[in-house]
Write a structure and sequence with these properties.
The chain has 874 residues and is α+β, with helices and mostly antiparallel strands. Helices cover 42% and strands 21% of the residues. The strands form ten sheets. The protein has an eight-stranded mixed β-sheet, with no helix packed on it. A five-stranded mixed β-sheet has the order 17-18-19-21-20, covered by helices on one side. The protein has a four-stranded antiparallel β-sheet with strand order 10-11-16-13, with no helix packed on it. The structure holds tryptophan and zinc ion (ZN). Tryptophan binds next to β20 and α2. Its cofactor is Zn(2+). Keywords: Aminopeptidase, Hydrolase, Metal-binding, Metalloprotease, Protease, Zinc.
Length: 874
């Protein structure tokens, strides 16, 4: 933003005002054309404010053709940047607005655009204003009727929200369809799709006996990749009835998969639009993780029908009202259907590797932000994942019954309304009788709390005392922090690994301690021996822990904790103690050595035939560089990478027979189904292949060439990538030859190529941008290639000559104009860098300054670049 007068303006949560007008219903008519689509919007507008006032409508990138009020051409209006201001209005009137759009030129994929040959829309958060002038805010709930007109041969399917009410043919080869959605909704839930697709049809009978038509639309030729998405949808519908008592409302549920989409998927009422990545899968083209991702995202969008659509957000600051809650629901769905422990571990890994970094970075914000420049920048790990953790803490404090009672109160009170996070917590409080006034602070305070733990055992009194102090470090946007209401779930282990009863005054007490003050002490009685304390069972709160553990204590926890997550977490602590020491050794120029105790732990685990295979896979997987970095106040990229490489290689060479035996046993036992036992066997095999690659690389090549499924092939490729084995080239060439016609499948290949840390990385990534399967216009491709390089190839992205930063800077300048949303997500690894050394920070500042000077810098990048510079230069 060179011109300072044009600087984007921030909006504040505290400035909320109810709208002066509302729109009761709107009838839309689209005459679709690639470069000149006409939209006629006829709305019933009603004044809410007591005083006479202008009607201020949002609108962007629109050509205004006409305005009329009560069928009369209306002249009293002004067009200013992003707004249409209409004056001289009665209290209630019919407003007709005609606009024209150019979907073909729309490469930002917000509003109406073309994905391949089809038309589709994306309106959340503020995209509807690119379709027509409107009160484009979530607290204006209207009923919609939509008529779509288009060429019949090119666009046989014309879809919108609700029920199809009429259709017909027109002259000149066109046809039309009209849709009516009986449920009042905010504009961000509007959707339209037009195109030619393959259609998978099915149906679902609800608990009350209604039959719902299910329709899944995909690009022609992809029908053999739709079965899993449809099965997941039916699972989700059943699960929401059984666990939450929530039933679907319309008579039809449609999902359309498109290749060009900025995010995962979108919950538009009755007509979800999905990134094809979260729909298309069969065993040849998709991994188990892809299948699980589809199940989770299909579930997520379906669950929004109640938590988001029937009950929506009053304003966008309340986004976590629907997202935190819906992520919690989709996590529970995945956990009920599959492995609860593995799901919990994966969610916590994501939180620690990325959400904690967001909290420590320049874009830190509470799960309910206070200040926003570009709303699209707040679809974050904090709002989604930490938001889900906050809901999970409520669930822990209230129990399943109390929580479900709260949900029922919430739905009964607020169905059909646009509400706030406070409304949600109040419903939970009123239904359960639990005081949640302090708990609400989780919504307004950002940052990751740190718990300091001190214990004392008194042999004579047989008492164990536990003192927990909490403190939250200042974040970029919020200096002062206060105490939070934190559920801390604990266990005390005896030296034989058994669990000790928690007693106070001779009565047993809950294992969930409620920390509400800066420091609190608990005294447990009747403890016959010095116990080992297991903290944060099931990761009961999104916090960091400062506590000293001996290796012996950690081994006791790894082998005996009742909670599976706690066992895995014990392993993380053990490895991280070693990593810290190793990084210091690397920095001091000393040789590294892997401790006998660690090798032994891995040996015993690899020989343990009783342990759950899914858990074992997680235990054997070494934390990523990003996760390790979270444990350091100053991050030394190269030392972390070296220490981690050394750890994996030494372990592989210390226990070659063990890893090979386990890998082979998994391969043999795998019946190649999607059942969870088989998924677990394949993840364990994948974990082993990472080690096997160092001792018997030919087995990795065999796993690639002999496996019929993508899961094994990709596991082998990843192992080959990390260990850089000779066979790697042949495997990657084979994959490229088999799949270069299919961009979605090539994404996995691009991602691995970009994270291949061998020297010359950047040049390879730059060359791959010219690959026939690559396209800068497709967000999935960009994320796979550029995103993987910046996020998962730290050594080269953070190269000391600044080449990685310069490369990302160039990409961002292209995307800034073409697709600001994608640019803004891609910039993260360039701004979450405050823990790096001074030389690297200086190189980053240079790149951020170049961006800051751009004439046409998007609001999205403006907000992040400004905050990034501020933190780095502070
Ligand atoms: N509401 C969507 C979800 O949680 C997220 C989403 C899809 C989105 N597309 C978007 C958010 C575009 C912002 C912009 O599933
Ligand atoms: Zn969502």
């Amino acid at each position: 933003m060179a011109d300072s007068s044009a600087q984007p303006i921030a909006k504040y949560r505290s400035d909320y005002q109810a709208p002066d007008y509302t729109i009761e219903n709107v009838s839309l008519e689209f005459d679709l054309d690639a470069t000149a689509t006409k939209v006629v919007a006829v709305s019933t507008v009603v004044r809410q404010a007591k005083e006479i006032s202008d009607l201020v409508l949002d609108g962007e990138k629109l050509e205004l053709l006409s305005i009329s009020v009560n069928q009369q051409a209306h002249q009293a209006y002004k067009l200013s940047d992003g707004q249409l201001i209409i004056s001289d209005l009665p209290e209630r009137f019919e407003l007709k607005i005609e606009t024209q759009l150019n979907p073909k030129e729309n490469k930002a994929f917000e509003g109406l655009y073309q994905s391949g040959e089809a038309f589709c829309t994306q309106c959340e958060a503020e995209g509807f204003r690119r379709i027509t002038y409107f009160l484009d805010r979530p607290d204006v709930l209207a009923t919609y009727t939509t008529k779509i007109i288009a060429d019949k041969a090119q666009y046989p399917f014309l879809l919108s929200n609700g029920n199809k009410v009429d259709q017909g043919d027109l002259a000149n080869g066109k046809h039309w369809v009209s849709w009516q959605d009986p449920f009042p909704k905010p504009s961000y839930l509007f959707a339209l799709v037009a195109g030619d697709f393959d259609l998978l049809e099915d149906s679902f009978v609800t608990q009350s006996g209604r039959t719902i038509a299910l329709e899944l639309f995909v690009d022609k030729g992809n029908l053999d990749r739709t079965e899993h998405a449809m099965a997941s949808l039916k699972e989700a519908m059943r699960w929401d009835e059984q666990r939450f008592g929530l039933e679907y409302d319309l008579d039809i549920y449609m999902i359309v998969a498109v290749d060009f989409f900025n995010m995962g998927a979108m919950e538009n009422k009755g007509l979800n639009v999905f990134n094809s990545k979260y729909v298309l899968a069969n065993k040849q083209s998709a991994t188990d993780n892809d299948f699980l991702g589809i199940e989770a995202v299909i579930g997520h969008e379906y669950f929004h029908n109640w938590t988001g659509n029937r009950i929506t957000c009053r304003d966008w600051f309340q986004l976590s009202l629907k997202e935190g809650l819906t992520v919690f629901r989709d996590q529970e769905f995945s956990s009920d259907l599959g492995s609860r422990a593995v799901n919990r571990i994966k969610n916590v890994r994501l939180l620690r590797s990325h959400q904690f970094a967001e909290d420590a970075g320049p874009m830190a914000h509470p799960i309910r932000p206070d200040k926003v420049i570009e709303m699209n920048n707040f679809y974050t790990l904090t709002v989604y994942e930490k938001g889900a953790e906050v809901i999970r803490m409520l669930h822990t404090l209230l129990g399943e019954q109390g929580f479900q009672a709260g949900m029922k109160t919430y739905v009964d009170r607020h169905d059909g309304q646009a509400v706030t996070c406070d409304d949600f917590v109040n419903a939970m409080q009123d239904a359960s009788g639990k005081d949640l006034s302090l708990f609400k602070r989780w919504y307004s305070q950002s940052g990751t709390p740190v718990l300091k733990v001190q214990t004392h055992y008194d042999q004579n009194k047989q008492q164990f005392s536990l003192t927990i102090a909490q403190h939250t470090p200042a974040t970029a946007e919020q200096e002062d922090k206060q105490a939070l209401h934190i559920p801390v779930s604990i266990e005390l282990l005896a030296s034989d690994g058994s669990s000790l009863a928690l007693q106070v005054n001779e009565e047993s007490v809950s294992s969930v301690l409620e920390l509400t003050e800066t420091e609190q002490t608990w005294l447990f009685e009747g403890i016959g021996e010095q116990p080992t304390l297991v903290m944060l069972q099931e990761f009961s709160a999104p916090v960091k822990l400062e506590m000293d553990y001996s290796s012996e204590q950690l081994l006791l926890i790894i082998n005996n904790a009742s909670n599976t997550f706690a066992r895995w977490d014990g392993m993380q602590k053990l490895v991280s103690i070693w990593m810290k020491q190793a990084v210091a050794q690397v920095q001091a120029g000393n040789n590294l050595q892997l401790e006998e105790a660690i090798v032994n732990t891995f040996k015993l685990l690899s020989e343990d035939s009783a342990i759950d295979k899914g858990l074992l896979a997680e235990l054997l997987t070494i934390s990523s560089e990003n996760e390790i970095a979270d444990g350091f106040a100053d991050v030394d990229i190269d030392a972390i990478a070296q220490a981690r490489d050394f750890f994996i290689r030494s372990l592989a060479l210390a226990l070659p027979e063990q890893f090979v035996a386990l890998e082979q046993a998994c391969a043999k036992a795998d019946k190649q189904s999607l059942a969870h036992e088989d998924i677990n066997l394949r993840s364990l095999r994948a974990a082993c292949l990472q080690y096997v690659a160092y001792s018997q690389p030919e087995l990795v090549a065999a796993a690639y060439f002999d496996s019929p499924t993508m899961t094994n092939k990709l596991a082998a490729m990843s192992a080959a990538n990390n260990a850089d084995i000779e066979q790697r080239a042949a495997m990657f060439r084979d994959y490229e030859q088999n799949w270069q016609h299919d961009g979605l499948v090539m994404d996995k290949w691009f991602a691995l190529e970009a994270s291949y840390a061998k020297e010359g990385s950047l040049a390879r990534v730059q060359a791959l941008a010219e690959h026939p399967s690559f396209s800068m216009e497709n967000p999935n491709r960009v994320r796979s290639l550029v995103g993987s390089f910046a996020n998962n190839n730290a050594r080269h992205f953070h190269a000391k000559d600044g080449s990685g930063y310069r490369y990302l800077g160039e990409i961002l300048r292209v995307l800034n104009t073409q697709n600001p949303q994608v640019a803004s997500r891609l910039i993260t690894p360039l701004i979450q860098t405050v823990k790096l050394d001074a030389e690297r920070k200086a190189l980053i500042v240079e790149q951020l300054q170049v961006l800051a000077e751009l004439e046409d810098l998007s609001k999205d990048l403006f907000e992040k670049v400004t905050n990034g510079l501020q933190q780095l230069q502070a």
